[in-house]
Design brief:
- This protein is α/β, with parallel strands linked by helices and 172 residues long.
- The chain has a single domain, classed as SPOUT methyltransferase, trefoil knot domain (Alpha/beta knot).
- The chain is 37% helix and 20% strand.
- It has eight helices and seven strands.
- Helix 3 links the parallel strand 1 and strand 2.
- Helix 3 runs parallel beside helix 4 and helix 3 packs parallel to helix 8.
- The longest helix is centred in the N-terminal third of the chain and has 13 residues.
- The protein starts with 5 loop residues before the first helix and ends with a helix.
């Protein structure tokens, strides 16, 4: 066994990525504190050809070296938009026909493995590292999806949660 070379991986250029047909998925980050988490979600969104990212509230915005450190150039390939308040992003997406789901542990949340993707475009809201998805944003969502967890801890880093959810949405 040997590792594949960069040429063998067939990676897209930024121009090829921009021209590629995207998955009808948008990621919404609600008041994320960590620039490393933001960069990591950009990188994951690039990996899965996500249509774009909405940065809401005090979520840091590119360009910044700490975002670039984990994004590895994905801030150049993935489209993104900034909103002063995350609720504005959610309402804008709903107005464009998106179903919007919070990734949050709530009363009545749907376990990720039981979630059935809707026919229309979909957006996933990932919340603050301490507080989760804000109540105002949660109330505007069409539902909540929960990632099953079986150990003592019942939370995942936002970048890990985003990777799990996005993989689950694009794999089938």
């Amino acid at each position: 066994m040997r590792k594949l070379s960069m040429d063998e991986l067939g990676r897209m250029s930024v121009a090829d990525f921009k021209a590629a047909e995207k998955k009808p998925i948008v990621v919404v980050m609600d008041n994320i504190r960590s620039m490393h988490n933001v960069g990591s979600v950009f990188r994951t969104s690039d990996a899965f050809l996500v249509a774009g990212i909405c940065l809401g509230g005090f979520t840091p915005q590119p360009p910044h070296r700490d975002i670039h450190k984990t994004a590895l150039g994905a801030t150049e390939s993935v489209d993104w938009w900034y909103y002063d308040k995350t609720i504005q992003a959610v309402l804008d997406l709903k107005g464009k026909g998106f179903k919007v789901y919070a990734i949050e542990q709530t009363q009545g949340s749907i376990s990720l493995e039981k979630f059935e993707k809707p026919a229309q475009p979909i957006a996933f809201v990932f919340g603050n590292e301490v507080e989760g998805v804000s109540d105002e944003v949660l109330q505007a969502c069409d539902g909540a999806i929960e990632i099953p967890q079986y150990g003592m801890k019942h939370s995942l880093n936002i970048s890990v949660a985003a990777a799990i959810v996005l993989w689950e949405m694009v794999r089938s």
